[in-house]
Amino acid sequence: MKNLPIGKQRLSRVLRQAGDLIDADDVASTLQIECQVANQLLARWTKQGALKRVSRGLYAPSPIQSVESEHVLTDPWVIVPSLFSPCYVGGRTAVELWDLTEQIFKDIVVFTTAPVRSKHQLIHGTNFTLKKIGQQQFFGTASVWRSRTKVLISDKHKTILDMLEYPAVGGGIQHVSDCLQAYFADDQSDSHKLFEYASRIGNGAVFKRLGFLVDRFALDPMLAEACRAKISAGLAKLDPGIESPRVSTKWHLRIPDSWAKLT
User: Fold this and answer.
1) Which residues form the domain of 180?
2) Is the dihedral of CA 89, 142, 163, 178 positive or negative?
3) How many independent structural domains does the chain possess?
4) Do 23 and 123 fall into the same domain?
5) Could you tell me the CA-to-CA distances from 203 to 15, 54, 77, 210, 232 in Å, in that order?
6) What CA–CA distances, in Å, run from 256 to 177, 237, 247?
7) 186-244 confidence digits (pLDDT tens)
8) pTM of this prediction?
9) Coil, helix or strand for 257?
């Protein structure tokens, strides 16, 4: 590091102290300078290409011209809390982490209670898919450490229920169905927890989809009956994104032709 220019030596000190993401406060506290001077340094390092602006006031090492190779931002998860909190990683992204699918998706799905201006955002070279939720839906999370950043992620049970409520964030109902079957094959599956979470969510469509799939694949007859007792009279779609001309009268669900043929 001694061979680096003085400016990059100072930046390297800041990155070692603060981690993958830095702001003016990090620069000021590490280098013992005023915030105004820290902001000037951040602007200079960004202009030089050593940093890349991630969001307002937040910066990450440039993957092209990083000051030291270990400071390249290789894990985009580390910027999630700073960008979208209160939030958690979920849906098809979480199901990959929980090893309930073999599919690989290119985006990161984030559930947030914060205002969402755009559902799809490209930030620091990574595609983020955002789902706005209410505060009452913010539960069932676990913590994972990515580098030195703690990131919330939906636990296995909440991941399944979120995908049943919003099949699009699960990659579509066929993939959600595959993940549900993998969940029941997992030694940490818990039908009581699924029913408890579904009750907390309070969306009748979740009980209909969960009950229908559990019944269809004979995963848990008792859970299927418990879900059936909770369904409302109105019709919901098995997958809101798919044309669904058929009706399952048992589950009050509109289902695609391809699913009707599985009976």
Assistant:
1) 78-260
2) positive
3) 2
4) no
5) 45, 35, 29, 11, 10
6) 14, 9, 9
7) 999 999 999 999 999 999 999 999 999 999 999 999 999 999 999 988 999 999 999 99
8) 0.77
9) helix
